[in-house]
Amino acid sequence: MGRRSNTSDSRRYYDWLDYAEADITAALDLSDKEETYLCSAFHCQQAIEKTLKAYFLYEDGYAPDGHNIIFLCRKLSGKYREFEQWIDECIETNNYYIQTRYPPDKPLDITKNKLEYLIRSAKRLFDFTLKQIENDLRREENGNNRTDKGNTKR
Mean pLDDT across the stretch 74-98? Predict the structure, then answer.
């Protein structure tokens, strides 16, 4: 049995970007107290996941199922090489999905410096992705359509 696609999730990339931005805000808000560092890290992982899925939706009209941001980033970078530069950040952040949501036998340890790195990474990837989309939309407005576009949703 294969993985099913979640048909109730929005197909609009900008909805995903809105939610990713809210996750970055939540990560920042939760980064003030040591007892909420892991919650903040979780929101960093979520922001990256939603940002990557937004770009899939923008370019291809679909977002792969799953939460492994290493997989998502590698899959994106196979088609859009500009995303290769974010693989290391995804590797650093990927563990903060499951392990921050449920009590593990061996708790994750996260420092303020590590958390600040995760927040910066999520914000930088978000800003990069938004700029990619804005630049592409600007080119389309000027009549310079890309020929490798996989969607017709806009």
Answer: 94
